[in-house]
Every structure is written in structure tokens, then in C-alpha cells.
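C-alpha cells incoming
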């Protein structure tokens, strides 16, 4: 049995979230949000059994982590661009 690293579930060196389903990791932000909305709608209909609810929760958690990672990367890019613009203005 392998130990989980403290970084599991955190963004890796390339910004990808460790431990995500590869299909989720390949999604754009918009695709992930749509998938999350569809998942929530199916749960809200109340016709989902316990096992399917648990699987949906796990998938939703991964979708949410992926969305957060993509937003964090976008925020970092905006900050870097802002700093670069300020530095160019002070030159």
C-alpha cells in the first residue's frame, strides 16, 4: 500500500490537479462547470440511489477542484500581466 503524499489533490508543477480523473482534467473551465451543473440537476431530481449519489459527489468534488485550479491559474496569469504592465510603465 502506498502512502498519499501531502500534495495529493493540490495543483502539480504544471498547474494540473493531482489525482483527477483524466477526462475531468482535460475539460475546459466551461465544460467542467456545465458538467457540474448537470450533475447537481440530476441529484436535485431525487431519483438517484445511494451508490450513485456517492459517485456523483466524488465526481462533483473533482469537477469543483478542477474549476478552482483553472481559476487560480487564470488569476495568477492576470496578476503577472498586471505586474509586467506596471514594470513597463516605470521603465
Amino acid at each position: 500500500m502506498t502512502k498519499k503524499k501531502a500534495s495529493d489533490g493540490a495543483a502539480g508543477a504544471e498547474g494540473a490537479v493531482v489525482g483527477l480523473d483524466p477526462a475531468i482534467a482535460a475539460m475546459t473551465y466551461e465544460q467542467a462547470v456545465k458538467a457540474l451543473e448537470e450533475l447537481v440537476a440530476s441529484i436535485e431530481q431525487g431519483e438517484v440511489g445511494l451508490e450513485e449519489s456517492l459517485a456523483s459527489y466524488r465526481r462533483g468534488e473533482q469537477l469543483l477542484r478542477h474549476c478552482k485550479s483553472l481559476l487560480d491559474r487564470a488569476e495568477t496569469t492576470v496578476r503577472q500581466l498586471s505586474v509586467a504592465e506596471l514594470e513597463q510603465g516605470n521603465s
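note: Residues 26 and 60 are 15 Å apart (CA to CA).
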